[in-house]
Design a protein that fits this description.
Blueprint: E1 4-5, E2 17-20, E3 28-34, E4 38-45, E5 48-52, E6 55-59, E7 63-67, E8 73-77, E9 82-88, H1 114-129, H2 134-153, H3 160-182, H4 189-195, H5 200-211, H6 215-233, H7 238-244, H8 250-261, H9 265-271
Parallel strand pairs: 1-3
Antiparallel strand pairs: 2-9, 3-8, 4-7, 4-9, 5-6, 5-8
Helix pairs in contact: 1-2, 6-8, 7-8
Length: 275
C-alpha cells in the first residue's frame, strides 16, 4: 500500500476544518495520503517539509502550502512548529470547476503570499477567542481567502496527467462522500457496491487499495467520529447515540469506541461532565 485516504470533518460551527497542526511538537511524519478537501498549511514558526507529486517543498516561517483535492502528499515536521491548518471541502469551489468537473490551484506560487498568511492568522485568532459575533468575522475573512484562491491561484490549464490522477481518486471520493451522507443507515458493503455499479469483490479490493483501510473499518470510523461529537455536545442517551449513528446497539458501539479512544462512552461522558 503506497498511500491512504484521510477522513475529514468540518468544525461544528464553521463549514471548514480549522486547527493547529498535530505535528506541532516535532518528530512527526505523515506518510503519503490523500483527501477530497483542499488543504492549506500556514507556517508561523519552525519548519515543515512537504512532498507533493514527487516535488519537495521546504516551508519556512511566514510561508504556506496548498494541497489540492485528491493530491497525494506527505508531511515531515522534524522540529517544533506553529502551523495553522485549514481543510476546505471541495464542494466549496463547485461554481468554479472546469468543464472536466475539476479545479486545481498552484502549489508553489502561493508559498510567500503575505496577504493569505495574514488572513489565516486572523481567522484562527478570531476563532479561538470566540468573541461576540465571531462566526461572521471568521466567515468574512474566509470568503476573502476563497476569493484570493480563485482569482490568483486557480490554474486554467492543467496537465492531462493530473486530471487523470484526480479522476482515478475522485471515483472513490464520490463513494466516501456517499458514505458521509448515509453513514447512519444500513450500509453493507454489498449495497454500496451496487449503488456504484461494482461487484462486491472488486469494490472491496478497490476500496482498500486507495484508502488503506477496509470498508467496514472506514465506516466504523465515520460513525464513531459523529458519535463522539454527540457524546461531547448533547445529553442524548448513549443507546440513542449508538442507534442514531448506525451502530447495531450500544454494546457494539461501546466496544468500538473503547478500541479507538481507550475509554468507554459512559466514562467519556463522566469525564466531560455530560448527563
Amino acid at each position: 500500500m503506497e498511500y491512504s485516504h484521510e477522513l475529514i470533518m468540518p468544525n461544528d460551527d464553521i463549514p471548514f476544518k480549522l486547527f493547529l497542526f498535530e505535528g506541532k511538537d516535532g518528530h512527526y511524519v505523515r506518510e503519503k495520503h490523500w483527501h477530497r478537501s483542499v488543504e492549506i498549511f500556514a507556517l508561523f514558526e519552525g519548519e515543515i517539509d512537504f512532498f507533493i507529486n514527487d516535488l519537495v517543498y521546504h516551508l519556512k516561517p511566514g510561508e504556506c502550502m496548498l494541497v489540492n483535492s485528491n493530491e497525494i502528499h506527505s508531511v515531515h515536521a522534524p522540529n517544533e512548529n506553529q502551523t495553522v491548518v485549514l481543510q476546505i471541502p471541495l464542494s466549496t469551489f463547485e461554481r468554479h470547476y472546469t468543464d472536466e468537473r475539476f479545479i486545481y490551484f498552484s502549489n508553489s506560487s502561493l508559498i510567500q503570499d503575505r496577504e493569505v498568511m495574514d488572513l489565516i492568522r486572523e481567522i484562527y485568532e478570531v476563532y479561538i477567542q470566540k468573541g461576540c459575533g465571531y462566526e461572521w468575522k471568521v466567515m468574512g475573512e474566509f470568503y476573502l481567502l476563497l476569493y484570493l484562491l480563485i482569482t490568483k491561484y486557480r490554474m486554467e490549464k492543467v496537465d492531462t496527467k493530473l486530471i487523470r490522477q484526480h479522476k482515478k481518486l475522485d471515483s472513490l471520493s464520490a463513494i466516501t462522500a456517499y458514505m458521509k451522507e448515509n453513514y447512519a443507515s444500513e450500509m453493507s458493503l454489498e449495497s454500496v457496491a451496487a449503488v456504484f455499479g461494482y461487484s462486491s469483490a472488486y469494490f472491496s479490493r478497490m476500496f482498500y487499495r486507495y484508502t488503506g483501510i477496509n470498508y467496514k473499518n472506514y465506516l466504523d470510523s465515520l460513525r464513531l467520529a459523529h458519535a463522539y461529537k454527540d457524546l461531547a455536545n448533547s445529553d442524548m442517551a448513549i443507546g440513542d447515540i449508538a442507534v442514531n449513528n448506525g451502530f447495531a446497539n450500544s454494546r457494539s458501539f461501546a466496544k468500538l469506541f473503547k478500541e479507538k479512544y481507550g475509554i468507554l462512552p459512559s466514562e467519556f461522558r463522566r469525564c466531560h461532565g455530560s448527563v
